[in-house]
C-alpha cells in the first residue's frame, strides 16, 4: 500500500483493478441506456428431431446487444456483469417480451414454433415470475406450449428449494422446462430425482467429442437412456457435423441443436429458414 501513496512504478496493480472497475461501471451505464433504447435483440437457433426428416421442434432465443459503437456483443461478455448489478430481471423481461412477440408473429404465419428462453438465478428468486409469464402469454394470445424455459444446473443449485417451487408452478401452467448444459454442474443425479423438467440438454462438451472419444460416446449414449427412463426428452447441444448427427440417431437421441444444423440467426433470417424447411418438408411428403 505504501507504493500507492507515491508516484512511479508502485500502483500498477491497483491501476489495473481501477481500470477493471471503471470498465465495469461504463458497461453497466451503457447497458442501462441500451436497455432503454432497445439495443437488445434476439437471435434464434433451431432444434430439430434426430431422424431423416430433421423436423423443426423449436428455436432457442439467444440474446445479443447491438452496441452502437462496439457492434454485436455476445451474452458471455455482459450477462455476468448484468447479474452482479441486479440487471438480469430487466433483461429477462425484455427477452421474454421479444420472444413472445416473435412467437406470435410465427404463429400468425402458420409456423407454430415454440421459443425457448434462458433463465438466470434472479428470475427463479422472484416469486412473481410465474404470474408475469402467465400475463405475458395472455397478452400475446399464446398457448403455454409456445414457450419453453431453460435453466442451467448452476442456476438450479443456487437456491434449489425456491427454484423447484417456481419451476413446479411454471410447469403446471403447461410450459416446457429444460435443464441446460447438462453434465457440467454437480449433484446432477440427486436433483434429477425431483426436478420437474421435460428435457435434458446435454452439454456440447460431450456431444462434440462423441465421434472421436469413446468415453464421451459412452456418456452421451447412457445419458440418452437415463433421460428416457426418467420420461424426459434429450437434446444434444453443439452438433457440428453430419457424423455426430448420425451417431446421435444411433443412440436414440430425440433432438439436436448446433452449428451443423443451423447457426443462431436474426429473426428475419430464421423466418426464411423456417419457411424454406416447411416448404421442403411438405414437398417431401
Ligand atoms: P446456452 O443456452 O447453452 O446456448 C448455447 C450457446 O452455444 C449459444 O451461445 C450458441 O450460439 C452456442 N452454440 C450453438 N451451437 C453450437 C455449436 O455447434 N458449436 C459451438 N461451439 N457453439 C454452439 P451464445 O449465444 O453465445 O450464448 C451463450 C450463453 O449465454 C447461453 O448458453 C446461455 O447460457 C446464455 N444466454 C444467452 N441468451 C440468454 C438470455 O436471453 N438470458 C440468459 N439468462 N442467458 C442467456
Ligand atoms: Mg440455453
Ligand atoms: Mg446450453
Ligand atoms: Mg451455455
From TrEMBL:
<feature type="domain" description="EAL">
    <location>
        <begin position="24"/>
        <end position="278"/>
    </location>
</feature>
<protein>
    <submittedName>
        <fullName>Bifunctional diguanylate cyclase/phosphodiesterase</fullName>
    </submittedName>
</protein>
Amino acid at each position: 500500500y505504501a507504493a500507492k501513496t507515491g508516484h512511479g512504478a508502485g500502483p500498477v496493480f491497483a491501476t489495473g483493478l481501477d481500470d477493471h472497475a471503471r470498465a465495469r461501471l461504463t458497461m453497466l451505464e451503457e447497458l442501462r441506456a441500451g436497455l432503454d433504447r432497445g439495443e437488445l435483440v434476439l437471435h434464434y437457433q433451431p432444434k430439430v428431431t434426430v431422424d431423416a426428416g430433421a423436423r423443426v421442434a423449436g428455436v432457442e432465443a439467444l440474446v445479443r446487444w447491438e452496441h452502437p459503437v462496439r457492434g454485436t456483443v455476445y451474452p458471455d461478455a455482459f450477462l455476468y456483469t448484468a447479474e452482479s448489478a441486479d440487471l438480469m430481471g430487466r433483461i429477462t423481461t425484455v427477452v421474454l417480451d421479444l420472444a413472445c412477440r416473435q412467437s406470435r408473429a410465427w404463429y400468425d404465419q402458420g409456423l407454430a414454433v415454440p421459443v425457448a428462453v434462458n433463465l438466470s438465478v434472479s428470475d427463479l428468486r422472484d416469486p412473481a415470475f410465474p404470474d408475469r409469464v402467465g400475463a405475458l402469454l395472455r397478452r400475446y394470445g399464446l398457448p403455454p406450449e409456445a414457450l419453453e424455459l431453460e435453466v442451467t444446473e448452476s442456476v438450479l443449485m443456487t437456491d434449489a428449494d425456491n427454484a423447484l417451487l417456481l419451476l413446479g408452478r411454471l410447469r403446471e401452467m403447461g410450459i416446457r422446462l429444460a435443464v441446460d448444459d447438462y453434465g457440467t454442474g454437480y449433484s446432477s443425479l440427486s436433483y434429477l430425482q425431483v426436478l420437474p423438467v421435460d428435457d435434458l440438454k446435454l452439454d456440447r462438451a460431450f456431444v462434440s467429442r462423441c465421434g472421436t472419444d469413446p468415453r464421451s460416446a459412452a456418456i452421451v449414449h447412457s445419458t440418452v437412456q437415463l433421460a428416457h427412463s426418467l420420461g424426459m426428452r434429450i437434446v444434444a447441444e453443439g452438433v457440428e457435423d453430419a457424423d455426430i448427427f448420425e451417431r446421435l440417431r444411433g443412440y436414440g437421441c430425440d433432438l439436436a441443436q448446433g452449428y451443423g444444423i443451423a447457426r443462431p440467426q436474426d429473426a428475419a433470417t430464421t423466418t426464411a429458414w423456417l419457411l424454406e424447411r416447411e416448404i421442403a418438408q411438405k414437398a417431401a411428403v
